[in-house]
Task: structure prediction
Amino acid sequence: MLVNGKRELAYIVAIDEIRPIPGYDRVEHARTNGWWIVVKKDQFKVGDLAIYIEVDAKVPAEEPFMFLEKKKFKIKTQKMCKVLSQGLLMAPSDFGWRIMGDSHTDEAYVMRGIGSTFFIGDPVTDVLKITYADEADNKRKANSADKYKLMAQRKPNIFKKPWARWMMKREWGRKIMFAFFGKKKDRKNGWPQEVSKTDEERVQNMPYILEDKTPWIATEKIDGSSATYHIRRGKKDKHEFFVCSRNVVQDTPEHPCYYDTNIYWEMEKKYHIKNVLTKMLKDFPSADWITIQGEVYGPTVQKRVYDLTERDFKAFNLIFSTCGRVGSVVMADTLKEYGIPCVPIVNEEFILPDTVEELLNIATDASALDGGMREGLVFRSKDGSRSFKAVSNEFLLKYH
Result:
C-alpha cells in the first residue's frame, strides 16, 4: 500500500470476506480489499481488525513470527491448500495489542500502548521492524535524502539546536537555512523535490477503482528497475540534470547501485537522455523542468531477462512542470521524436472489469517484448493523472 508515495509493507486492515476452502477443514480463505490469504479456521470474523503484511516483505526473526523460520521469514505469493495466498494476516493480540471499541465499526482502532493507536489504513511497517525480503530492495528502495537533510547531516551540532529545528519545520525557514548552510553538492545529491517517485498502487489495495467504467490506457508492466531522468532549467542554459534509481540520486556513473555497473547511467549514455532533455527544454520553452521515468530491464536486473543479451530501457512517464504527467499515447508520440522507446501500449480504450480476479487474469498474458510471460499491466487515465497496476499472480509464482 502506498502512503504519501512510500510503499508500506504492513498496515491495519479489516476483514472483508471469509470463504471455506473445499476439502480443508482447518483453514479458510480470508479477504481484505483485493487480497486473499489462507488463515486458520475461526481465526477471524468478517469486520475484525487485523495486521496485514504484504508480499515482498520480510519479518524479524523473533516472536510472534518464529513459525515462519522455515520460510526464512519471507512473505511471498504462494499456493496453499490449492488456492492462492498473498501476504500474511495476524491478529492484534498476536503482538499484545488490543482492539478498542466495536471492531465492526469505523470507530474501532488498535491500541499498542498508551498514546499509541492505529486505525484502518495506518502503517505499522517500522513498528514491526519489517523490511523487504530482497536485500537489494532494502538498499535500492531506501529513501534518498533531500538537500535539506544532506545539509543538516554535515552540520549536526547546529541543526540539533532548538532554533534550528524550529526553522526547519517551516518551508520558508528551510530556504533561509539553505541559503546560509547549504552547498551546491547538497542540491545536486538530494532528490529533486518536484519529482514524484515511481511506485504504483496495486489494484488489490484500491478495488473501488473498478467502478470507473471510463476508458483507460493499458500498458505493459516490465520487470526491471525503475529509473528517473530529470532536468531543471537554469540560467544561461546551465541546467541541472539528475539521474536517479527508484529512490536514490545516482550522482555519478561510479555511484554504487547494486548491479555490476551503474545501469541508470548506462541507459543515459545509450539513449543520450541528458541531450534529449536539454533539447526538450528548448522545444518546450514554458517548462521549468521535464522528467522521463522508465524501466531498466534485461540481464542481471531481475530474473526475467526478456531474451536480451544487454540491458535496455522503456519509458513509462513523461512529466512537464507546466501540465504534469501526460497520457501514455501522448508520451509515446512525443518521445518517439527524440529516440526514446516506451513501454508497449496494450489497449487505448480499456474498460475495467467488475472484479479484481478478472483484471488479474487479463494481466496474465504474453509480453509484447518477447512473447514470454508478461509481468502485468499498468492502467492510466487518458490525461495521465491517475494510474494503478495489476501484477500477474502467475508471474509472481514463477519469478518472485
Remarks:
- The chain is about 20% helix and 30% strand.
